[in-house]
């Protein structure tokens, strides 16, 4: 049973009725967005009483059908049009020529055109002029028509899709280009240029200053050195709680029966390492500084959590065989870092910048996870993503995060509703997913687009943005 875009649908055998009024309201709203396609919800969460209510509707929308919101669009004729062909170098939007009615735009120093609508799939051509294909750009709103290297001279570099992408050597002016990095002095009062973005001071705040901080010699091993059977064996956290992580019972689990908390040994090792490292490095930083809360993983036989009680809490293809985990955000102004909404939210995503997010600790945590060659993709809320990108970029620049990790930021989110569902349900947790098998996945992406959350789901039609994290040594 597949949606028109080939996404596996949930619950082919029937649609459990949500137990809480909340779900009815939420689902109605979601259905209106069209983002869920024919997917439907699972849930009831058992007897847990914390505010994880919508919790394991989770990844629901990650199997969602196509885009729902248009963006960009053909030129409306305003402003002078430049003469730069797609793929040529630019400093300002006005350097770039329109093509077949599509407005020219300068993207980190390379001329492109704006797509007429959201990309119907990664690399689709229906929304673009000839000789280009449709993708978004990580951390940026809107959709772009990326020039094909086979059809255009490229001032940047050709990526895995054969698209002309900005390179380390291309850049443009923040004051006159829609997709350009800021420099000191470019941002309005009350905001700071961080990671190439003007970020509101109050949203992100000052960072920890120059790194790399404490040495942290006694961390648990990060990588699993065993064979495939050993590293892929489903295990549990033992002990369940330490100073740096807390695998507490939730979603109907009890302390004696944490049936939703089995994961691969390599993922357990990575999380033990990353949370221990954050705990060590971030002593004295603002925030509650407590252990990071862990949520759903898989059941003991590798099934989606909830399967054994007839209520699988995630779409088929994710949270199976211990490759995935949902975990809390590091937080400020809360007692702990359990899974809970970190923001004002509606329809399972943040509607404002998260006020409970410990941005710096969580960014450090993400940066530490990206040290691993086994991480495939990490999903966060779109509003949180913007802040985390800025903070992580700054932590890369100031030496807190390993350079390899900074070159392999596999962070996926939507800042606006692109219809791919990344931001649903991630208002109260982060989702970490490993590569299949037992091998590294070194590439930033396997196709030039961001990885989908689960197998059988489509690629998020968004290309990575190396301008956020890569700081070539002068
Ligand atoms: Zn998840």
SSE topology string: HEEEEEEEEHHEEEHEEEEHEHHEEE
Morphology call: globular
What structural class do the secondary elements suggest? alpha+beta
User: Class of the domain at 199-468, according to the CATH hierarchy?
Assistant: Alpha Beta
Low-pLDDT runs: 1-78, 470-474
The overall strand count is 19
Strand order within the widest beta sheet: 1-2-4-3-19
Strand content: 5-15%
Protein architecture, described:
- The chain has helices spanning 21-33, 201-204, 228-232, 265-281, 359-369, 382-397, 403-406, and strands at residues 104-107, 110-114, 132-137, 144-147, 157-158, 164-165, 191-194, 197-200, 234-235, 245-246, 263-264, 292-293, 324-327, 345-346, 349-350, 375-379, 411-412, 430-434, 462-463.
- By secondary structure, the protein is an alpha+beta fold.
- The chain has a domain at 199-468: 2-Layer Sandwich (Muramoyl-pentapeptide Carboxypeptidase, domain 2).
- It is 15% helix and 13% strand.
- It is built from seven helices and 19 strands.
- Mean pLDDT is 77; it is low at 1-78 and 470-474.
- The radius of gyration is 22 Å and the shape is globular.
Short description:
The chain contains seven helices and 19 strands.
Which characteristics define this entry?
disordered N terminus; single chain; disordered C terminus; four-stranded mixed beta sheet; alpha+beta; binds zinc ion; 7 helices; 15% helix; 474 residues; Muramoyl-pentapeptide Carboxypeptidase, domain 2; 19 strands
List strands and helices in order, with pairings.
Layout (H helix, E strand, L loop, with lengths): L20 H13 L70 E4 L2 E5 L17 E6 L6 E4 L9 E2 L5 E2 L25 E4 L2 E4 H4 L23 H5 L1 E2 L9 E2 L16 E2 H17 L10 E2 L30 E4 L17 E2 L2 E2 L8 H11 L5 E5 L2 H16 L5 H4 L4 E2 L17 E5 L27 E2 L11
Parallel strand pairs: 3-19, 10-12, 16-17
Antiparallel strand pairs: 1-2, 2-4, 3-4, 5-6, 7-8, 9-11, 13-18, 14-15, 16-18
Bound molecules: zinc ion.
